[in-house]
Amino acid sequence: MKLAHLCFAMLSLLVTTVSAQAKERIISIGGDVTEIIYALGAQDELVGRDTTSNQPAAVNNVKDIGYMRQLNTEGILSLKPTMVITSDLAQPSAVLEQIKNVGIPVVYVSGKHSLQAIPQKVETVAKALHREKEAKPLQENIDKTIASLPSKQQPIKVIYIMAHSGISNLVAGKDTAADAAIHDAGLQNGMGNTLHYQPMSQEGIIAAAPDVIMTDSDAIKTIGGADNLWKLPGVAMTPAGKNHNLIIIDQMALLGFGIRTPEAIKALRSKAEALSHG
């Protein structure tokens, strides 16, 4: 009887050990989510990621399931995930519901454009991966950087221009990630009197009178180089255009409101001040 009990105990321990060692098969949706997974050291469990997940560079070796707002059920299920960790901005929501309905856990991470949301994102991902211990120093570093951001507002007007092939050039108004980042940097959004992203117009740009133009590397490629930026309607007639005050950002770092965003906001403030005072 004692031998039987001993054998049962050893078998139970073996099963428990194997289960604990079994890796998850995770699909990550959202660049901010994926960067947190890497920061927590769980990248070996990734079997899929969306197109916005391109940092760190090693993630580009992971299977791409497509754009986060054009999810496909079959593409996700083909990777046999045991868990999907996704930004709550991902679409269509019906695809994620289908994933849940077949028994695969779906963990939703806040997509808010807020510095306060970043620690919440880390906490959500860490809890899902059982890596709360690894999250602690990451959280402390994020909190420290956020606390170090300048609190004094500057009267420096910035506008963010988004340009992608196939669509008109857009400028960022209120209720956008760009607007939130500009304000968190203690700067003024020159297009703050409009809502969301609006088509760029000569009249609107001239009226905004930005001191600094902000855009990203993809936009620069789309318009054919930085020199062409100053040829866009109205830009040359603004203070930014006359002085060629341009800041090219890492879009995910600044606008993704992930773990790199506090440092990116600090850098935006520093660069804007240098340009406006130069």
Task: Give the topology, please.
Layout lengths: L1 H20 L4 E4 L1 H9 L6 E4 L23 H5 L5 E5 L5 H9 L4 E4 L7 H13 L2 H16 L9 E6 L7 E3 L4 H8 L3 E2 L7 E3 L2 H7 L3 E5 H6 L3 H4 L9 H5 L2 E4 L1 H5 L5 H17 L1
Parallel strand pairs: 1-2, 1-3, 3-4, 5-7, 5-9, 9-10
Antiparallel strand pairs: 5-6, 6-8
Helix pairs in contact: 2-5, 5-6
Global Rg: 23 Å
Distance between the termini: 85 Å
Low-confidence stretches: 1-21
What oligomeric assembly is this protein in?
Answer: single chain
Percent helix: 40-55%
Number of helices: 13
- Can you count the beta strands? 10
Q: What does the largest sheet look like?
A: 6 strands, mixed
Number of structural units classed as domains = 2
Q: Quick one: CATH class of the largest domain?
A: Alpha Beta
From the 3D structure, determine the CATH topology of the largest domain: Rossmann fold
Keywords: Signal
Protein name: Periplasmic binding protein
Pfam families: Peripla_BP_2
Signal peptide: 1-22
Write a brief caption for the model.
Helix content is 45%, strand content 14%. It is of the alpha/beta class and 278 residues long. The protein folds into two domains: 23-147, Rossmann fold; 157-277, Rossmann fold (3-Layer(aba) Sandwich).
Describe this structure in words.
- The chain is an alpha/beta fold.
- The chain is 45% helix and 14% strand.
- It is built from 13 helices and 10 strands.
- It has helices at residues 2-21, 31-39, 73-77, 93-101, 117-129, 132-147, 177-184, 202-208, 217-222, 226-229, 239-243, 251-255, 261-277, and strands at residues 26-29, 46-49, 83-87, 106-109, 157-162, 170-172, 188-189, 197-199, 212-216, 246-249.
- The strands form 2 sheets. Strands 5, 6, 7, 8, 9 and 10 form a 6-stranded mixed β-sheet that branches. Strands 2-1-3-4 form a 4-stranded parallel β-sheet.
- Strand 1 (26-29), helix 2 and strand 2 form a beta-alpha-beta unit.
- Helix 2 packs across helix 5 and helix 5 runs antiparallel to helix 6 (132-147).
- It is globular, with a radius of gyration of 23 Å.
- The model is unreliable at 1-21 (pLDDT under 50).
